[in-house]
């Protein structure tokens, strides 16, 4: 089966005054269906920039980005939105939940935007949140949830539309070590159960070792 994500010659540079800063330099990366890959590197190594590129969140990149077999690097804004909606899920270091909506509503909303019926979206949200141990917290707003619970809701939201690929940027970086371990374990378990692939950026060697494969980014070069 073809790769869920494939980049070829992916590069990104910025100009500051007379200086050119090469953040990504010819990145070649492939993620297979169902594979969970750790993107390891220190702060400033370009991990977030790489995730922004493959998540089609901003332009200015050179090279090829294929998502679910579709060349996406040169799509217009509408085309990138469609690919993100149909194939990608996102988890960030900070949960970015909608504060005026409760847990289940935060997971239902992206499904409604995707075109799901309300009843089906509600059932899907309940299933995901219950699988993450939040079946008793469905009607709580983010401010009523702990940091770990908020991040679990963010994981459920990312998986709500059955994405082929989940992109996660330091998804447990804002949690204490014990909570981070529990949230990551539940995240990885649910991603595997759902059959999605994942590319997870982290600077934590111990957490990266729990994933299927590790790639390292240093000074914009992937190894």
Search tags:
223 residues; 6-stranded mixed beta sheet; 4-stranded antiparallel beta sheet
Task: Please provide a written account of the structure.
The protein has 7 helices and 10 strands. Helices cover about 35% and strands about 25% of the residues. Strand 1 (about 5-15) and strand 2 (about 20-30) form a beta hairpin. The model has no long low-confidence stretch (mean pLDDT about 85). The strands form 2 sheets. Strands 6-7-8-3-9-10 form a 6-stranded mixed beta sheet. The chain has one domain (about 5-220): Rossmann fold, CATH 3.40.50.300. By secondary structure, it is an alpha/beta fold.
Q: What is the domain total for the residues?
A: 1
Residues in β-strands, percent: 25-35%
| Assigned CATH architecture | 3-Layer(aba) Sandwich
Query: How large is the count of helical segments?
Result: 7
Which H/E pattern describes the elements? EEEHEEHEHHHEHEHEE
Amino- and carboxy-terminal Cα gap:
23 Å
Q: Which percent range fits the helix content?
A: 25-40%
Main sheet: strands, sense, barrel: 6 strands, mixed
The general outline is globular
What top-tier CATH class fits best?
A: Alpha Beta
SSE class: alpha/beta
Strands across the major sheet, in which order? 6-7-8-3-9-10
CA-atom Rg in angstroms:
17 Å
State the CATH superfamily name.
Answer: P-loop containing nucleotide triphosphate hydrolases
Q: Average pLDDT across residues? A: 87
Enzyme class: hydrolase
Domain ABC transporter: 5-223
EC number: 3.6.3.-
Family: Belongs to the ABC transporter superfamily. Macrolide exporter (TC 3.A.1.122) family.
């Amino acid at each position: 089966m073809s790769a869920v994500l494939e980049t070829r010659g992916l590069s990104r540079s910025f100009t500051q005054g007379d200086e050119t800063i090469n953040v990504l330099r010819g990145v070649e990366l492939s993620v297979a269906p169902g594979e969970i890959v750790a993107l390891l590197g220190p702060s400033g190594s370009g991990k977030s920039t790489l995730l922004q590129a493959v998540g089609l969140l901003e332009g200015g990149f050179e090279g090829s980005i294929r998502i679910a077999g579709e060349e996406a690097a040169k799509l217009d804004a509408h085309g990138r939105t469609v690919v993100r909606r149909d194939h990608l899920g996102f988890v960030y270091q900070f949960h970015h939940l909608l504060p005026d909506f409760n847990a289940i509503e935060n997971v239902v909303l992206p499904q409604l935007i995707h075109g799901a019926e309300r009843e089906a979206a509600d059932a899907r949200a309940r299933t995901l949140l219950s699988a993450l141990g939040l079946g008793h917290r469905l009607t709580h707003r983010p401010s009523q949830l702990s940091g770990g619970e908020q991040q679990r809701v963010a994981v459920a939201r990312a998986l709500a539309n059955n994405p082929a690929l989940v992109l996660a940027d330091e998804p447990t970086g804002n949690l204490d070590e014990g909570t981070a371990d529990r949230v990551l374990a539940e995240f990885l378990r649910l991603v595997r159960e759902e059959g999605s692939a994942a590319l997870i950026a982290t600077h934590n060697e111990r957490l990266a070792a729990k994933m299927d494969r590790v790639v390292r980014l240093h000074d914009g070069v992937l190894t």
